[in-house]
Amino acid sequence: MNRNILEMNNITKAFPGVIALDNVSFHLKKGEFHAICGENGAGKSTLMKILGGVYEPDAGEILINGQSARIENPLDSIRNKISIIYQEFNLVPELSITENLFLGKEIRKGAGLNKKKMNKEAKKTMARLGLKDYDCQRLISSCSIAIQQLVEIGKAVFNDADILVMDEPTAVLSEKETKALFELIDQLLEKGISIIYISHRLEEIVSTCHRITILRDGKYVDTMDNSSYNVNKEDIIKLMVGRDLVDYYPEKKHVENQYNVLEIKKLTKEKIFKDISFKLSKGEILGFSGLVGAGRSEIMKGIFGALKTDGGEIFVNGEKVNIKNPSDAIRKGIALLPEDRKKEGLVMKLNLSDNICLATLRQFCKLGAVIKKRKDSIVYKFIEDLRIRPALPERLMENFSGGNQQKAVIAKWLSANPGIVILDEPTRGIDVGAKYEIYTIINELAQKGVGIIFVSSELLELIGICDRILVVREGRIVSEHLKDRFSEEEIIRSATIN
Amino acid sequence: MLKFISPGKEKDQNETISERIKRIAFGRRESGLFLLLAGICMIMIILEPDTFFTSENMFNILRQVSVVAIIAIGQTFVMVSGGIDLSIGYNLGLCGIVIAKFLGAGFHPISSILVGIIVSALVGFCNGLVITKLRLPPFIATLGMANIARGIIYVLTKGYSISIGDPFILYLGSGNVGIIPAMAILMMILVSIGIYQLDQTAFGTRVKAIGGNELATKLSGISVSKNKIAVYTMAGVLAAIGGIITIGRQYAANPGAGANFEMDSIAATIVGGTSLAGGQGTVLGTLLGSLLLTVIKNALILLSVNMYWQTVAVGAIIIIVCTIDVFTRKNK
């Protein structure tokens, strides 16, 4: 059990604007259950994507069984007997379990397939995973998430994987299914398979993993020995966070105001979020923290009318409103900057000017015809106010940088003159300079009296600019934190631990 | 305050003359198409000096292109919105038959024409409803509607043509304003409106936005369904106008009149630079696409190429023009 099956040494990977991994080393022993911990953006996923051949590192080496290995694409990774189960499964929903297991290595019989043999083999594999006598001809799309995950593990077993990476496998599982998964993991470990485990659930980690490696800001922090299961999760949190808040966030004058621009009462969407109640006052920046998949984005979409809710009430400026679709919300002065600006925020094939005016076209029209002068004056105002560069309104949206695209989405909503602005991950994937500009814009808005909801997975960012932070876990608001008493450790604890 | 020098045009100060020619010629799809069109005309003037560049032949080309160009405006809007309309051809035929039936029953020509337009608009409206409310893919919805329209045509006519004697309709399809065919003037008016509508109105921007990113458009508070229904209805109305011209040109409403027009309109639209994926396209490009395909057909006739080979040539042109487009886009 002492031999290193995998060594990743001095791995560095930079993306435009950020260094995702800075000289990180990670060692995995044979038959070991090794957890990687870190905040969102610490570099866990990037490290695994390098192992999976999705990214190529800028520097560093990978040794497998002591031999240098080149992993340039996903196929290299599979050849080196590495299997990675990403959060989004790599299964074809309209094919059966058998067909998914055999994808790319079908057993042939003459010109056709030997379906009988394939089904038999598939059944055997699934039985080894504890799923006896399961109908392997069922389509993946008709299987539960837990079964789909088993099929993914089945694929790994099928590929004779020596190293198995699991990225947040329990995030989507029930308690019972989680227990079954850990039993299965024990079996796999006994067979000599080594497992890398990424999870935000620290309780699971301290009670099951052999070693724990911690990353922070793309740097290696420490590897803790947990062979006798005695590591304290508080210690892990300290190492995950452990840094000072630098003077990175613009100064904000705290607005004392009791006037509620928005009040949500018991908003519910079955299986996604439940009994969401909170108030937002004028000029306040209210943060929403929580793990990915906790239901934050869905709550925001529910308020905005982009997701149908099952119950609850929404009050804008003290008046009960009925929001059935986004245009209702816009009429009530609510704006939502969606999480995924490319998919939900912008039309890449339209130019900057049209994107800015998309939500407010009617303002610039007379009898349906766009009045260019009126439109241009608004567009130039926002290009200047938000410092969108290059200042070319006719340039296609797809040719702008991420930060400037995000500013264009903000401009689109500001042109609607909203009283409430919801920002969902507004700084994701943009560089440091642009982040600072966006914080400044948000501050200025708040000072003008706009109520702001700020959803982010980067806790430091929330602490840096919010007046108040609500933590969402598993579709519920579990705690409230006030500015004078923000504590990273407390917030992480309430986001992760029951 | 920053000064904006002619907003939007990113100009390179150090551009050489040859680079500049290249940019103007190939920078926009329309200018490339125009050059190609001009090139073919030049070749024809050399090859067939006596027949090609005569006023008679030029008006002939205009007559041939008008109907395709008119219905292709509708197809352009549909395809820019991310859809496709396979029912345009039979919808065109249906409108003609309905008008002929009403005229035959003794109705006033204007009311007959209005009924024809309303029927075609309804067909388009139903396309829109099925696509937005029943959420069927446009290909399937309009394919179904094409067959329904075709079926109704044969139910109404039992396969026989109905002759048309109304002077107004005949004037639209066969008359001249001065020396220019009336239908060509109608086509130019409709194309101008189409260019303006797609480029300068809120509706046009919304159609492009829907085709470019439906979800983002919806989240911007725009009713995707309403705009899509409007687009298909508009395509129906334009098909109706095409249908009126067609019966006026043929002096009869033929049950088979609309066959293949949907494919011609799609070809013209695609050659004109509209993206099959939606979000991009211009009506001017579509007009040039229609012209290009028509001029090539006309040229092949003058060169006495076998009729069946003409069809092969048109198919080849579609593939060649679009291939050139793919490569020039890659090089950018």
What does this structure look like?
The complex is a heterodimer of chains A (498) and B (332). Helix content of chain A is 33%, strand content 27%. Chain A starts with a strand and ends with a helix. In chain A, helix 8 (233-241) crosses helix 17 (488-496). Chain A has a 6-stranded mixed β-sheet with strand order 6-9-10-3-11-12, with helices on both faces. A 6-stranded mixed β-sheet of chain A has the order 18-21-22-15-23-24, with helices on both faces. In chain A, strands 2-1-4-5 form a 4-stranded antiparallel β-sheet, covered by helices on one side. In chain A, a hairpin with a 2-residue loop joins strand 11 (211-216) and strand 12 (219-225). Chain A folds into 2 domains: 4-81 and 162-241, P-loop containing nucleotide triphosphate hydrolases (Rossmann fold), CATH 3.40.50.300; 260-496, 3-Layer(aba) Sandwich (Rossmann fold). Chain A is built from 17 helices and 24 strands. With 498 residues, chain A is an alpha/beta fold. The longest helix of chain B is centred in the C-terminal third of the chain and has 27 residues, at 224-250. Helices cover 73% and strands 2% of the residues of chain B. Chain B has one domain (54-331): Orthogonal Bundle (ABC transporter involved in vitamin B12 uptake, BtuC), CATH 1.10.3470. The model of chain B is unreliable at 1-12 (pLDDT under 50). Chain B has a two-stranded antiparallel sheet with strand order 1-4. In chain B, strands 2-3 form a two-stranded antiparallel ribbon. Chain B is built from 14 helices and 4 strands. Chain B is mainly alpha-helical. Chain B has helices at residues 17-26, 29-47, 55-80, 88-104, 109-132, 138-157, 167-174, 182-200, 202-212, 214-219, 224-250, 261-271, 283-302, 307-331; strands spanning 162-163, 176-177, 180-181, 252-253. At the A-B interface, helix 10, helix 11, strand 20 and helix 13 of A face helix 9 and helix 10 of B.
